[in-house]
Specification:
By secondary structure, this protein is of the alpha/beta class. The chain has helices spanning 11-30, 52-58, 94-102, 117-134, 149-164, 186-200, 204-213, 218-222, 266-271, 314-326, and strands at 40-43, 46-47, 65-70, 82-83, 91-92, 104-110, 141-147, 172-178, 229-233, 239-243, 251-257, 299-302. The protein is built from 10 helices and 12 strands. The chain has an 8-stranded mixed beta sheet with strand order 2-1-6-3-7-8-11-12, with helices on both faces. A two-stranded antiparallel sheet has the order 4-5. A two-stranded antiparallel ribbon has the order 9-10.
Length: 329
């Protein structure tokens, strides 16, 4: 019997599945379609079983520090790879560089980006719990990195973990949000407005077009929200929807792109990195209700950096590295 590992799935297949999940992933999940992606950590293009044996096979020298990377809408974990400037002919990633520079063991998530943000947040909280349960050595620190939608899912998972007093969430020290639409994605809101207008026109053709556009997944629709929301239990026992708090004990870093050299330029203020606008977040100390990031230097705008570039740019990693070296008091 051969001991060779199965061939890595073709990259195009991963992209096709991720794109379809982004736009109709909730439909695929409801219909139990084989194209629907189940959230998992991925290693070399395949799901990583959460057993100690499988984790050791993927990471023969596990450390006490973990780095979790979560991609954005219609992407997969391959979005993090880019040519290594120090090693021509080879690829690297923020996870690999954090492993080299600070000893973090990286884990890359792939998930169905068409599901509701709340559903994916809950799934990620469970996945992180299961990882700690099977991890071969005690964990002392967890660093989280999310791109675009991935940052919202990390924020939601941390909130769920804090409510459950989960062991993993107590270990989270830093969260990096790369181009995350904490105030909603204007492009998604534009799509919502277009759908509403088409439905309002009393003509069968325009209403049909509105119905077609309304098929967009719940994940896309959730990006229209001007801030992430969470269900909270009130004093009367009834659930109420409240703004999503930030994890109070962690340091939060917002790294965003700008299409021009000047973050105050009109084009940058309107379009941000091309998909997500520069947020109106004013770094300040954490307030009692958790509505603001704790980091004093929480917002960094990178000039001439588009949305997808935030996942694979040495300048972005330089910011991550600086935060890890210096810390924020």
């Amino acid at each position: 019997m051969s001991n060779q590992q199965p061939a890595r799935p073709p990259v195009w297949a991963a992209w096709m599945a991720s794109l379809s999940n982004g736009f109709v992933g909730d439909y695929l999940h409801t219909r139990q379609n084989g194209l629907a992606i189940e959230m998992a950590f991925y290693h070399q293009g395949r799901p990583l079983p959460l057993t100690q044996e499988a984790v050791l096979a993927a990471h023969p020298w596990p450390t006490t520090k973990l780095c979790i990377l979560v991609h954005g809408l219609s992407c997969h974990e391959g979005i993090w790879l880019y040519p290594d400037p120090t090693d021509p002919g080879h690829d690297t990633s923020y996870g690999a560089l954090l492993q080299r520079d600070f000893g973090y063991t990286p884990f890359f998530v792939r998930y169905n980006t068409g599901l509701a943000l709340a559903d994916n947040s809950a799934r990620l909280a469970v996945l992180l719990h299961e990882l700690l349960e099977c991890y071969p050595t005690p964990v002392e620190d967890i660093l989280l990195i999310g791109h675009s939608m991935g940052g919202l899912i990390l924020r939601g998972a941390c909130h769920i973990g804090a409510q459950q007093q989960a062991a993993w969430v107590l270990l989270v020290s830093q969260v990096f949000y790369l181009g995350t639409p904490h105030e909603g994605a204007r492009l998604a809101r534009l799509g919502g407005a277009t759908t509403a207008v088409l439905h309002a026109v009393p003509h069968p053709i325009t209403q049909l077009l509105g119905n077609v556009l309304d098929v967009w997944s719940q994940g896309v629709k959730d990006l229209r929200l001007t801030q992430p929301l969470a269900a909270e239990m009130g004093s009367d026992g009834a659930a109420a929807i409240q703004p999503m708090p930030w994890l109070s004990h962690a340091r939060h870093h917002l790294i965003v792109g700008a299409l021009t050299d000047d973050p105050q330029d009109l084009a940058t203020r309107l379009f941000g990195d091309g998909l997500v606008a520069v947020p109106n977040v004013h770094p300040r100390p954490q307030v009692g209700d958790g509505s603001a990031p704790v980091a004093k230097d929480s917002l960094k705008v990178l000039p001439r950096t588009h949305h997808l570039q935030l996942t694979r740019d040495p300048a972005v990693y330089a910011q991550i590295k600086q935060c890890c070296e210096d810390g924020v008091e």
